[in-house]
Fold this protein.
Amino acid sequence: MLSDFSLKFQAEEQPERPLWRAIQSTEILHFVRSLLLAYDVIGVQKKRGRLVLDSLQDAADLVLEFPPAVHSPKKFLFPHWDQLFRFKLDENILLEAETAAPPRIIFGMHPCDLHAVKILDDCLFEGETDSSYRAKREATLLIGVDCTPDEFCFCTSLGTDRIAEGFDLFLHKRDGHYLIQTGSERGRKLLQDHAPETYDGPEESPLPLQVKQCDNKIKFPFESLPNLLEDAYDDKIWQELGHRCLGCGSCTLLCPTCYCFNVQDKLEISMQEGQRIRTWDSCQFDQFAQVANGNNFRSSQADRQRHRFFRKYKYLWEKHQRTACVGCGRCRRECLSEIEPVTVLNQMFADSPQPAETRPGSEYQPQMAQIIDVEQLSEKDRLFRLRLPQSIDFTPGSFMQISVFGLGEAPFSIASAPDGGNEIELMVRKAGTLTQALHRSRKGDSIGLRGPFGSGYPLASMHGKDLLLVAGGRGLLAIRSLLQAALADRHNFGRITLLCGARDIEALVFPEDLLDWHRSELLDCRIAVKDPDNSWGIPSLDISYLFKDLDIDPQRTIAAVSGPPEMYRQVNPLLFRMGLAEENLYLNLERHMKCGLGKCGKCQINNIYVCECGPIFPYSAIKHLGEAIER
Amino acid sequence: MKMKVGLFDFAGCEGCQLTVMNLEDQLLQVLQHIELVEFRELMTETAEQIDIAFVEGSICRPGDRQRLKQIRQRSKVLVALGSCADNGGVNALGSDRTPEVLRQQVYANDLPHLYTETPQPLSAVVKVDYRVPGCPIDGQEFLAILQALLLQQQPELPAFAVCVECKLAEYPCSFDYGQVCLGPVTRAGCRAICIDGGGHCRGCRGLIDNPRTSPYHRILEQHGLTVEEILDQYRTFNVSEKAP
């Protein structure tokens, strides 16, 4: 999520077109001299024999070609010791806000560190903007400079070796001189005011995006990192790292994007006044996740290393769609135990069970499943029982993609309950060519399957509750899966009520099951059919009539409603009138889920991919989406 | 009512007391909040009742035990000041041989006025409530601990290792220079002053609560060091403590 501030940075401050000018070393010297009159200029310089990033006193001290080992500029944007406010312990406690940050220029930041600032922006402007960071960020101009990766850098694996925006100026090294590129209006103005001769110099042709070379490489596309970690929560590698790690916290302190902090009060010696400060903390420290009674929620070093990797490559990816690692290599460069993220990730990848995923397009390749039974449910509907090569784990409401080679692929709700085995049931209604072809399949044939996809009903959180299941037409497919799961575990649920409606008797799927459920003592099953000429002799009613004498306890009921949108428009208000909470109503928002991978966009409801986040949603999560159930 | 504070000393170089005196202006400011009732380096007065006693030095001479017990009796809170008081410090270095042998080796004569027992930390004799570690102590840490006690808070020492302070100050790692360093297992709070001075950490502030022994040993081996070599370093200040 971008705050107003970062929008301002990215939209308003972006100049129409970057300027490109040649700048000689002597001009850079004059430029820095001029800047020193107006700004605190931070640059790499030699101090006590070491290259460090610090306030420049003399422009001649500035080093522009420096190794990636120099510590990151985080310390100037998010310092280790940051005063939040001062207080005075008079009769009335007096608070003084932190004064504004000094106007500052960081002259010489490698592309990875510029990317790191974007990550800090993501994290610290999200939600409640961190005003102390904001003050420094607004008062600081960033000037990028080319770098040469060393053996620990792996920026090329993360795409952070190159940068097109996120700086005010950037210096590209050429033979014997530099090309300076503007990246913002502030940067353009800075060049105009402090290096007017360069600014007025001839236009140079823009360079293509500068790409680096690193020998240290992640051997798979970095986009797979969140999924890789998802499956590696219990990997043995965390124990290995836990045994190697000293817990010294150097990795997080040196990381240009780690910003977790502690807040403390520091009293002056007078004990009459003091400051509330924040200092860098580290998830690698013993007490980081410890609470007042002594419990520690990440008690082993293995837990802490895992947390670090998950935060870098998964948690923040899921929030901001980029890794919180920029491949600068600082964590490894100064780690006495030589814990190297690239080695860890590559090893994890090599140990991961799906090497097929590396093959381009493999996520679209179905596996073959055998038809072990075919049941004719009605004239148009057939139920296929399929056996997969391995067991299948899913939540009721998930779906599979069935392939018929030559005709394509289509999504089908899983109609059976998850039972930990390798068999599932899919109902196919004969309609188009693909479903007709499926109807021609016989027991013993093989068909292509991909999945399971999607997120279904959270069964465990429904334990102990009454279930009110409302199905319209083919909406019964997902409901059947849920009901079968609940009946298999009957003692864990309270009352179960199934209300099922359809246009006519032919539109009722699973008629035999419905009759069984109607007769069963385990649930209350009521059926309504609109068509007056129905052969079952049940009253011809709209589904809303089934609610008339319905007696539910809204406090302990979870409702799962699955059917066409017009049914939701009709049924939802009835449920809310009965006192059901919005978060206790689950809707099935199936769309045309083509790829199942959250990519193709066909199933998208406003900004949400149904195939990833649904198709089962709590009403509270989708009520703000205009495309969800409105006409 | 100002808290009554006393400073006491046993066997040691008095460097920790000097560190307190060197606080100068800050010490004068502190005097607005405490009543200094006993401090041999500064004054001749003594006191019957003490709220906070800071005790420097290790216990080794005849009569030390009795005097320490009396200080404990007079004091509400007793704080070990510096390595010698905290864990025996460098005084305890010779504890691998008897005091008689040591005396012969050092002085080659039997000098009765130099009779000592093996130096021990305060905690071997009395209950120690809190400690200010280090050889010498860090003056600012002393002030922070005193301040916490005046506010009746639990004084807290950093729980992390000296490595943190090296990284924050951007000092190069001693291991990169082939030097044995106890920084990875030693409690921070010294601002890595020895590494800043071009040296390495000898562990004067004692171990962190949870030293990672096995990765540390592996690192020593990788740098061609034996555990015995690092123990030699470690024993400089921590003879009486369990090794990392």
The mean pLDDT of chain B is 91. Chain B has ten helices and five strands. Residues 117 and 188 of chain B are 31 Å apart (CA to CA). Chain B touches chain A at residues 26, 29-30, 32-33, 143, 147, 150-151, 159-161, 163-164, 167-168, 170, 172-173, 175, 184-185, 209-210, 212, 214-216, 218-219 (CB under 8 Å).
